[in-house]
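Fold this sequence, please.
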Amino acid sequence: MKKGKLSINDIAAKLNISKTTVSFILNGKAKEKRISEELTKKVQNLVDKVGYTPSQAAQSLRTGRTGIIGLMVEDISDPFFSGVAKHIEDEAFLRGYKIIYCSTENDKKRTQEYLRMFNQLRVDGYIITAPDNAEDDVEKLYNEGKQIILFDRNFKDIPLSYVMINNEKSTIEGTRHLIENGFKKIAFITLDSDQPQMVSRGKGYEKAIKEAKLSKHMLKMNYSLHAEDYIEQITTYLRTTSLDAVFFATGYLGICGLEALKGLKMSIPKDVGMVSFDDTDLFRIHTPSITAIPQPIAEMSTTLINTLLDNIEKPTSSRQKKVQHEIVLGTAIIVRESSKRK
């Protein structure tokens, strides 16, 4: 027999066992089917010796699964999304699945094309950070019975499972932290977006400011692919607005804010205090270090992939009525030098 050319039938004939037994062993079901360790080792040793590789197509036809999960994020280069992707990939691998991921860049056409690709690849499930203009496309997948879980944001009118943080509470706590440290003219710099996580963060800021009877200062910017666009707008806003602190709604806006402050030669926290959502190595090593509200990436990722895979692996009969899991995680502010009055 030639290396790499064996079929399951060949392996079964060589060892004088049934091809069903070989299939169970190759698919990791030896213990479940009470196949002896001795026979399992014989099959595995022969497979290793001849270099047998099972056909992905054949496995898919037999099991009804491809072992592939589609992961769609806003921007895979963003430290938050890349961190989530890495954790999901590692967790999925432990359970025998592979990840294909892509970036939507908040573009509807791009989102549609990637969803079409995932569908053609017959992925077993979808993990999606969806643009707010993709609700119809996601709803179509849901109506087709696809296994989907959302993260970082959700759609109110589609009963899909999702994992996200308590954005409103987190922003209230970040704003209160600045107020408690003596800052009074606090700006919230965010995106002009209807995405639920951005709306909730804006509400949190407004509640904390109203509670403290302070004036609201908010800059809402359109989504852009170019950091220079944000830096220019932030620079103009800081130059023309009397402030003593800024709270950035995302990590990448916080990074752009640092560049704008540097260009204006504004000292942190002497001239302006700073807090940002998300946490990056830059915030930790910057002088002064930047106070941040990190999202619990490891917990979020593990919850996402295990919730999805548990749904996929349940018998069909138990999935006839889909159960919506609404998972909201907490955050904790990391206080550093940028928000402490000297």
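The radius of gyration is 25 Å. The domain at 8-54 is CATH 1.10.260.40 (434 Repressor (Amino-terminal Domain)).
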